[in-house]
């Protein structure tokens, strides 16, 4: 069972990080994977009442990886912590299956009371680098939290939130059994990168201009040719033409 879970976690890393090349590389070189192994041990000790041993195992994991997961936190299957340095997951936080967390993420509390005070991430949530999710609320299944967002309130299933304080910029359905649950870096597949987006914008603009030129050609078809080449154009262009003529006189 333990080995099966570990294998699933390694495979999740391979599937979600294009830089990972083999299972051995993940086992040897991925701090996110190491942190989860230490956390499984720490959580096991914590649940059996060996609180100090649990804290110590968690601390060793933190020293080795830079990822701090309280032994009381509940972490689901196939969770992937990429890069990991600076991640902090508090005592009453819950992280659902298939979630992805990037470096610097905090799942933190806002209360000092001994109660549920950290967030709960649903399934397949993606949390961008240095996002801070603070408080005992839920982040819904398939939600995406933008890099550096500060999230202070519940996030509905399938939403994308960005900014400080975080606001919703998009919403789609929660991930289903059939739909893929992971988008690399949480970025939509239909918008590959900013350059492609700019080119798409230019192409739309050119298509619009072509349609307008065709319209104007149709309107002008059949009109007798005029001597003024700027006739029919914008009035300001005609003025430029006229003043150019006047300019010669002034000189
Ligand atoms: C939030 C995120 C998931 C949105 O991706 P997307 O669905 O492709 O959305 P878009 O890029 O079209 O952005 C939608 C809007 O949110 C804004 N936005 C995107 N990411 C943002 C962020 N992190 N902070 C603030 N605003 C952001 C965009 O400017 C855009 O605003 P506009 O509609 O006013 O133009 C993505 O930008 C992100 O932050 N992913 C995390 C990546 C990461 O942490 N990588 C670490 C790798 S080590």
Keywords:
alpha/beta, 251 residues, UDP N-Acetylglucosamine Acyltransferase, domain 1, six-stranded mixed beta sheet, disordered C terminus, 2 domains, five-stranded parallel beta sheet, binds coenzyme A
Give your account of this protein's structure:
The chain has 251 residues and is of the alpha/beta class. The protein has two domains: 2-181, Hexapeptide repeat proteins (UDP N-Acetylglucosamine Acyltransferase, domain 1), CATH 2.160.10; 196-250. The protein is built from six helices and 15 strands. The strands form three sheets. Strands 3-6-9-12-14-15 form a six-stranded mixed sheet. Strands 1-4-7-10-13 form a five-stranded parallel sheet. It has a four-stranded parallel sheet with strand order 2-5-8-11, with no helix packed on it. Helix 3 runs antiparallel to helix 4. The longest helix has 27 residues, at 194-220. The chain is elongated and about 95 Å long. The structure holds coenzyme A (COA).
């Amino acid at each position: 069972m333990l080995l099966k879970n570990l294998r699933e976690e390694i495979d999740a890393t391979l599937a979600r990080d294009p830089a990972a090349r083999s299972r051995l590389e993940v086992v040897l070189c991925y701090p996110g994977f190491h942190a989860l192994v230490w956390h499984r041990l720490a959580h096991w000790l914590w649940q059996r009442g060996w609180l100090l041993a649990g804290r110590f195992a968690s601390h060793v994991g933190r020293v080795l990886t830079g990822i701090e997961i309280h032994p009381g936190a509940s972490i689901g299957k196939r969770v992937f912590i990429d890069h990991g340095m600076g991640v902090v997951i508090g005592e009453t936080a819950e992280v659902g299956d298939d979630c992805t967390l990037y470096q610097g993420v905090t799942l933190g509390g806002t209360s000092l009371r001994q109660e549920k005070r950290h967030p709960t991430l649903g399934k397949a949530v993606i949390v961008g680098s240095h996002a801070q999710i603070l408080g005992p609320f839920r982040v819904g299944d398939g939600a995406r939290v933008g890099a550096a967002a500060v999230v202070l309130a519940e996030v509905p299933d399938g939403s994308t939130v960005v900014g400080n304080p975080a606001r919703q910029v998009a919403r789609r359905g929660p991930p289903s059994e059939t739909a893929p649950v992971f988008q690399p870096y949480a970025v939509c597949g239909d918008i590959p990168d900013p350059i492609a987006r700019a080119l798409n914008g230019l192409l739309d603009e050119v298509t619009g201009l072509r349609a307008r030129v065709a319209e104007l050609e149709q309107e002008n078809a059949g009109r007798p040719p005029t001597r003024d080449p700027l006739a029919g154009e914008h009035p300001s262009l005609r003025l430029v033409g006229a003043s150019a003529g006047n300019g010669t006189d002034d000189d």
